[in-house]
Write a structure and sequence with these properties.
The complex is a heterodimer of chains A (about 900) and B (about 375).
Chain A lengths: L1 H15 L2 E4 L2 E4 L3 E3 H12 L2 E3 L2 H4 L3 E3 L5 E2 H12 L2 E5 L2 E5 L7 H7 L2 H6 L5 H5 L3 E5 L9 E9 L10 E3 L4 E3 L5 E6 L2 E8 L6 E7 L3 E2 L2 E3 L7 H14 L5 E5 H5 L10 H5 L5 E2 L9 E2 L7 E5 L2 E2 L4 E2 L4 E2 L6 E7 L13 E7 L8 E6 L3 E10 L1 E13 L2 H5 L9 E16 L2 E15 L4 E17 L4 E18 L7 E21 L2 E21 L9 E2 L3 E15 L4 E15 L4 E4 L10 E5 L6 E19 L2 E12 L1 E4 L10 E4 L7 E14 L4 E18 L15 E17 L4 E15 L14 E3 L6 E10 L4 E10 L3 E2 L2 E7 L2 E6 L5 E2 L3 E11 L9 E9 L7 E9 L2 E8 L5 E9 L1
Parallel strand pairs in A: 4-8, 9-15, 10-16, 10-17, 21-26
Antiparallel strand pairs in A: 1-2, 2-6, 3-5, 7-8, 10-13, 11-12, 11-14, 14-15, 18-25, 19-20, 21-22, 23-24, 25-26, 27-28, 27-60, 28-29, 29-30, 30-31, 31-32, 32-33, 33-34, 34-35, 35-36, 35-37, 37-38, 38-41, 39-40, 41-42, 42-45, 43-44, 45-46, 46-47, 47-48, 48-49, 48-50, 50-51, 51-56, 52-55, 53-54, 56-57, ...
Chain B lengths: L1 H14 L1 E4 L9 E11 L5 E10 L13 E5 L5 E4 L1 E2 L4 E4 L9 E5 L5 E4 L10 E9 L2 E9 L7 E13 L6 E4 L4 E4 L9 E7 L4 E4 L7 E11 L8 E11 L1 H15 L16 E3 L7 E2 L2 E3 L2 E9 L15 E4 L3 H4 L5 E8 L5 E8 H4 L15
Parallel strand pairs in B: 2-20, 2-21
Antiparallel strand pairs in B: 2-3, 3-7, 4-5, 4-8, 6-7, 8-9, 9-19, 10-11, 11-17, 12-15, 12-16, 12-18, 13-14, 18-22, 23-25, 24-25
Classes of the chains: A mainly beta (about 900), B mainly beta (about 375).
Chain lengths: ~900, ~375
Amino acid sequence: MKKFYIFFLVMFCSIMGFINAHSQNYSFNADSLDLISTIRTLEKYSGKKFFYRYKDIDTVKVEVNRVPLPLDKIFKLLGDQTKLKFSLIDDNIYITKFSEIISLANVNKNLDIADVDHLNIQKQTKTLMEIKEYTIGRKSANKTQVILRGYIKNKKTGESIDNAVIYNNSISVNADNNGFYNLVLAPGKYIFNILGNGMHEIQFKLNIYEDGELNFEMLEKITTLKNVVVSAQKVSKVNTVLMGVEKLNIETIKKIPSVFGEPDILRAITSLPGVKTVGEASTGFNVRGGSADQNLILFNDNTIYNPSHLFGMFSAFNPEIVKDIELYKSSMPARFGGRLASVLDVTSREGNKKKLTGTLGLGLITSRVTLEGPIKSEKTSFVLAGRTTYANWLLKLLPDEYEKSRANFQDFNFAVTHDFDSTSKIIFSAYYSRDRFKLASDTIFGYNNLNFSLRWNKKISRKFSRNLILANDNYKYIIGNDFNKYNAFDLSYKLSQLNFRSEFNYIFNSKSDIDFGFSTIRYNLNPGKYIGSGDSSKVVDDILHKESAFENAIYAAYRYKASQKLILSGGVRLSNLLVMGGKPSYTYIPNGPISEGTVESVKNTSSGEIVKTYFYPEIRSSLRYLVDNTFSIKAGINTQAQYIHMLSNTTMMAPTDIWKLSDEHIKPQKGIQYSLGAYKNLASNTIETSVEVYYKQIKDYLDYKPGAQLILNHNIERDVVNTNGRAYGIELLIKKLTGRWNGWIGYTYSRIELKNNNPQQGFMVNNGNYYAANYDKPHEATVLINFKASHRFNFSVNSTYSTGRPITLPIGKYYYEGSERVLYSDRNAYRIPDYYRTDFVMNIEGNHKVKKLAHSSWSVGLYNVFGRRNPYSVYFISENGRIEGYKMSIIGNIIPFINFNLRF
Amino acid sequence: MKYFIIAFIGIISILGCRDKYMPGLNEGDTLNVLIVEGAVWPEGDSKITLSYVLGINQPTRDSYINNATVLLENESGQLLATLRNSANGNYNLSNTPKADKYYLRIKTAVGDEYLSEPIIPLATPAIDAITWRQNADGVKIYVSTKDPTNNIKYYKWDYVETYQYNSVYSSNLEYSTATNSVIDRDMVNNNIYTCWRDIRSSSIFIGSSAKIEDNAIYDNQLISIPANHEKLAVRYSLLVNQIGMTKEAYAFYELMKKNTEEIGNIFGNQPSELGSNLKCVNDPDKKVVGYVLGGSIASKRIFIANSELSDWRFSKFCTKDTVALNEVADFFPAQVKIPIEKLYSDNGSVIGYEAADRICVDCRAAGGTNVKPTYW
């Protein structure tokens, strides 16, 4: 960053002015400059540091001297013009608006702590705050190894700061998601720094001789200090042993333009390398060749089965409550399992522990409100959020025949956090989302997520910690139709699961530690209920048998730091599925296709009976080798098993997709991924680059026979076939997260191919050859650029390109049943035209007075700036006896948007 | 689901759009893929149509297979009858011999031989009712049916709509090419004011009673006529043909319907491979598309007169012109205009004709025939 900064200054100087420095006198070769560049120039040539409030001086223009003058004369000149006070103390110059500063003590009295945050010069915290020194234990204790632990929290809000880093030249330790850290050291004297994302760096001296505890409170940065973030980046990406992990905090997500200006978590992750989506109205995403159902989407430990609103236009996470997201594409920590492709871990914010605050957001489609604050003491806090839509205006624009259309959705979050003490913390979280829409007809579609979770984190001793998690997840959808009173029906689907998880971490010494634990999930599914509605309905009720199962897992992952350079991590997860009875169990003629005609026998099973057991050992291993402080190489092998599958014969997630457990006939999906990566930080760690390659095999992925019936099918095994797949790719990322200009460039080359060649299944796709999956888009590139014009204006441009997705095209036509019809090619033999889109957003912050009652911000932007009609699909239909081909775009125009946010 | 999809396309049309798109694909004439369509009707008229698949951009739809041998066999391989080839790839057999199971064998001129799976003929029940209802949007016509024996749960319908319509102007003159003059029209044999037009169904209409109590189909919609449409301007008739199907046949038609009539929705339903109940004997990899049904066909006809409807007004815009005697050769021989009435001078001599465009005078120009159907 520094280089960049200097480059910037040089530019400024050459444009704005030029300094002539002889002895202690300075002159400018311009008559008029803005004050900022005057100060920067003086700072550069005098070696003195300037402290000021940016907003006091950012618009001020001054007349400057062409004749050389000493500094005090220059200050007088500037002071006379601007009415600002320039105070020189030691080698620092303080610029204040009202009273002159006479001594440093005065600074602390005059400027309260928040005002100090506004000071625009790096390292001012070090200048103004003394470095604290802590001494723990007696030197005479003579230990060989000591442990320091504690937690790090936000001084202003009392919330924990996750993933803060405590480091010095040779050691660095990350605090966990809840702010807890453990530092294993040899006794002695140290100087450490603490970095937290968006926080002021803390430096402290430590003289430690026995085990001890230290808690830190960090101050929020209102003006981003560049160096701090850079260091944090360095520590996280190059150093960690995990690979294929992408992390975005909500601030970054908010800078990514989205349709209607609504910050969208799922849309944001599709801008990362290796993550693709089949189209714009889809929140389903594909990670490294995985299908949409191979992603485990966790929200505060809850599994979210349908993370979308309004047919997939929005993701179902309220951006106001999300703290950050982590996406594991490759190395899945052993504590996660049950999905092949990825884990998306969405964490919500903790409530403010000091005072009651809230936010209000108004957008074109939705409004959001949050309220948070302490409950009784500073140990307990809550956060409550709600979001609702008024999308009906959008439907009003439809032709008259859609007059009756209605769509609405809501989501609610509630979380309570309580700190018992520095070693124990409990979090309760509740989530509810609801969608209802009725379109053009009398069919009502609706779906809900309802989730609760309870997490208890406890440090049992200095070396041993434990997290207990209990989560209950419910998803259901209902389709009602009373179009024809004789055929009126309600069709519903319901899934619920109860998950208990226990995670342990034990630190052996400064070189090794172990994660271990177990998890059990009880699934209960009502896979389909079709009942007549109304008195005249002649519909015959059809209720599918319930399905239930237990998914169990135990795991252990051992991390060993062989040297400063080499870290190894080896893990095993033993997972198991117990399929419970309670419905008729069919057996089919062995080695033949499974169909109605090959049924051998049927027997009834009781609900307490285990009808099938699956058991798979999964491997989670990786290593990191640090070539030097800015360059590392990592490798990993991961295997996974997945016991619950989404059945969908559409290319994207639809509200009628059903989730199906593995059973006697439907085998679990299995996957193995080999990955290799290189990570290099450039330009004093301000630019982060990475290359990752992977090869992946997928076994027993579910595909469908032609004309498969997925809804209300009592014997779904007769309509599905097992498919194998292979995926490989390379992902390149160059990322700069700090500075006035920041952003990233990502490029991915990847393939995913499926193969269905088992003649015993009675059906082969494309004669048993490999064919491209629906979401196989070999080339994809994304560029995201943010420019921070000032503290109040921020511009972002996002551009994305990808190869068109594969499609099955008509290759011939024929006449049948009174109409010309089309004959289709082999599956996915062609591609739709390539995709390209650019968006633009401008975020405008209100002024930065910290003590203002409410802070407002606006975001204004354009989605699809060039109005390109990116085809979402190409299709051919018979219309009035003729074949017509169409390409359909979801967003075919420029979409302007505006959003208003208020924080109080 | 269907309505959902339609509405979704509606929403997308505000934001998004669809554009015509015909990628340059296979430019070949025909693909060696057999298309077979038809039904075997015991003791009735069996009809099979054979054609090849045409290249997607071929303008013609003439790819019928004539001169093939189409044989009907029974279970023990005995020949029951040979279907007779008429034009346009049609093969007919009247008074089809009765059998429990039929096998259809097709031998094409290029030497491919195809054999069907067993075709079990079903006794299609009579159509219960064809009902219609008028609302502000127009008229909708429904079919209801029921199999009292509970054997048949799947149905397919096709229909022929016939409607009577009038041209805007009634002409009592015609231009005789024999005499190159305008003569009085033969109002009995050459009336061009009233016509009847047939429209055949061009979509797949299928229904299932499998999930309905008492195994009946209630009000399955076949036709929707927009308000004030010409079809109901005078009198309208609808002939519905119904055939019972097996579950497999229903699955085939449902898939064909999904593949060719419902593909363009937002969730991107995948087109899937369409099969056949015939297989190529000499090359099992050769593709065949089509499902030959077996069973009787039940038909029912209804009439709807304009007087039965409330407030149904059809109008067409036309203007009359004057054609002077010296202009007759420019307009009438090529039927640019059709004479309607003579125009006289004050002294009573013919000085020209009142005439109008053919579409306004000759009802046949709109595609109908002026021959009254026998059932009318």
